[in-house]
Prior knowledge:
Layout: H1 2-39, E1 53-55, E2 57-59, E3 63-65, E4 68-76, E5 81-84, E6 89-94, E7 101-102, E8 107-111, H2 114-170, H3 176-201, H4 203-229, E9 232-234, E10 239-243, E11 251-252, E12 257-263, E13 268-274, H5 278-286, E14 292-297, E15 300-309, E16 319-328, E17 338-344, E18 348-354, E19 364-369, E20 372-377, E21 379-385, E22 391-396, E23 405-407, E24 420-422, H6 425-433
Parallel strand pairs: 1-24
Antiparallel strand pairs: 2-23, 3-18, 4-13, 4-17, 5-12, 6-8, 6-11, 7-10, 8-9, 10-12, 13-16, 14-15, 14-17, 15-16, 18-22, 19-20, 21-22
Amino acid sequence: MSEITSLPRRRDTVWLLKAVLPLAILSLAAAGFMLLKATRAVTPPVAAQEKSWRVSTIEVLPERLTPNLLLYGTIEAPQKAEIRAAVTADVAQVNIREGQMVAAGAPLVVLDDRDLALSVRQREADFREIEAQIASEQVRHMANLDALKREKALLDLAKRAVARAQNLNTQKMVSESALDEAFQAVEKQTLALNTRQLEVDDHPARLAQLQARRVRAGALRDQARLDQTRAMITAPFAGRVIQAPVAPGGRVRPGDLLLEMYPMDDLEIRAQIPFRALPAVRAALAGNQPLPAVATVDGQPVTAQLDRLGGETGQNSGGLDALFRITEGIRWLIPGRVLTLHMDLPPEDGVVVLPFEALYGLNRIYRLEDGRMAALTVERVGEQRNTGGQAQVLARSPDLQAGDRIITTQLPNAITGLKVEVKEAGMEAAEVKK
């Protein structure tokens, strides 16, 4: 009986353990979680930091400076001469070569003048013949004047003979045939007198015709003499020979090129001035203000002066051609050579010097303001070379003040408000050295 009673109690204990144990485990787990949560370490929030870009800067001072334009010019010879043959002849001598310097009046090319000499003799003979004809006409005219007087006297005699014959005929002392012969003699003498008078009256016309022929013959003679002198081609000025495409033995005709040369003291430099610089250049020319320019050719200095502006510009041109008169170093130059020219413009006020690295686009720079970039729009007035020969930009803006620091480092993401950090002087020097 007792064994039967203890069996149900054992079953109740097992069931109670199965029901309470999971709850106890869950309670312990919850208590442990709460304990861990209460005792965990608190991590402070991480604040986001703005990135700073390291840049270089320069301090600017607006002042009065002389802008300089970098131009690319070409040497030209405006007085270049193309000497061509004026006559048909064989080339006898060629005394020059390409590139040779010649003095004014020096013999360059000699043509065979034998044919030309024959032409001169022929024209001189024609002229002397006309002069002889004029002299003959003068003698003939004097003879006609004397003969005219005699013809008139003979006509008077013939008329008196007719009168006598008529008187005798009325007296039946002369036949009719004798009277007719007297009248016939008068008519013949009248015709002779008229012919002689015509010769006298026609003298001025004949003389004028001969004189005109003499003028023509004289002109042809002078032309022949001139052609003969053209057989000797001399230098019209002191200069340098560009080319001489003839050789002894060749035959030339009028218009054939004998040589080409240019004067050494009359070379010019043609360079294009940008449109943005034209107002200042025109104002300087109008005020007779000199605008000098310098260049270096083969290590030799060349100086020039702006002389005038060109008369037209190309459709797609970015400027206007300018002609420079060379004042020094002309002996180093030859036509067609290209050179780099530095021209000084009139001085400008309120201008600062900037390296090209400080320029963004054509007219934008950035100023350092409270550790951030601030964009400024500037006016480019030209360029200038530093002591090292490097080109620098001259710019002007009413917003630029003395002591402003301009950023000279090119940043691809440059924008107003971008945070920057100025490099230390030692670090900048090290980077420049690299």
